[in-house]
Design brief:
Blueprint: H1 19-42, H2 54-66, H3 69-101, H4 103-117, H5 125-132, H6 136-160, H7 164-172, H8 177-188, H9 190-211, H10 220-229, H11 233-261, H12 264-267
Helix pairs in contact: 2-11, 3-4, 3-6, 3-9, 3-10, 5-6, 6-9, 7-8, 9-11, 10-11
């Protein structure tokens, strides 16, 4: 066998990227969109009755913050979203462990939960209004329902994928069922749990928008309905941006948890590219 013309293989070498470089690249898209928005407003392609200019939106932020409307609305919306998210995460985690770790739980609950999961949570708005009225309970429970099922599916799948030999080994050492779940199953399912957390936190913002359409008298949704009544596209843009920033903050928070709880995902080959 001849080796003429062959060259020694060279493994690909990934150059580590600095944190500044990564942040700069991530910011290019949003900066480009804002620049396009600004240029369209300045040239008249976007008129204020269609969408306020960035300058008008900044002025609206100052107006709403100065009179206290924006801080109050933000606090109310965050409270609603936070309480609903905690309820949903707790329910999804508990049900996911029950169906993923025990055969009885799987047989009793999984088929029913999978059926309920296919029902769009927005279709529950009229029913919740009949059951709970137009108070905070309906809004919080709508967010809870929306965030339960992503966490349930991720938890159940992660628990099912736990190494059964490891579970049996821990049982042979005398660990009880709760100890196995706490010390073996949940750490092994951590990637799935964080994926479910990310989806649930994103859905909590989407569900918040829907929940605040239920005759809200305070919150970001109330600001939006008031702005719609008076055709204030600057305030509408502020509210939309607030919702977007809430979703972005949720995603950044989960990424931070991943770096803390699973440092090996960014420390290995190619980790600097994330």
């Amino acid at each position: 066998m001849t080796t003429t013309g062959l060259v020694a293989p060279r493994p690909p070498v990934r150059r580590p990227r600095s944190r500044t470089h990564s942040v700069t690249v991530r910011a290019l898209g949003p900066v480009a969109l804002i620049a396009l928005w600004w240029a369209s407003s300045a040239t008249g392609l976007l008129t204020p009755d269609v969408l306020a200019s960035p300058t008008q939106v900044i002025d609206a932020v100052g107006e709403l913050w100065g009179n206290g409307q924006l801080p109050d609305a933000l606090a109310t919306s965050l409270t609603r979203s936070g309480i609903g998210l905690v309820i949903g995460l707790t329910a999804g985690l508990t049900l996911g462990i029950a169906t993923g770790f025990t055969r009885l739980g799987d047989e009793l609950l999984d088929s029913s939960l999978q059926t309920l999961r296919t029902i769009p949570f927005l279709s529950l708005v009229p029913l919740f209004m009949v059951w709970f009225g137009i108070n905070e309970t309906a809004k919080i429970l709508l967010i809870a329902v929306a965030t339960t099922f992503p966490m349930y599916v991720s938890t159940s799948g992660g628990v099912r994928n736990t190494d059964r030999k490891l579970v049996e080994a821990m049982r042979s050492f005398g660990l009880g069922r709760l100890a196995i779940v706490r010390q073996v199953v949940l750490p092994g399912a951590l990637p799935s749990l964080l994926a479910g957390l990310r989806l649930s936190m994103t859905l909590s913002v989407i569900a918040l928008i829907a929940a605040e359409e239920i005759n809200a008298t305070e919150g970001i949704g109330y600001l939006m309905s008031q702005a719609q009544s008076y055709a204030r596209t600057d305030i509408l843009a502020v509210c939309i941006l607030v919702y977007g920033l809430l979703g972005l903050a949720a995603d950044v928070l989960v990424r931070g948890l991943e770096r803390v709880l699973m440092p090996w995902r960014t420390a290995g080959p190619g980790g600097g590219d994330r």
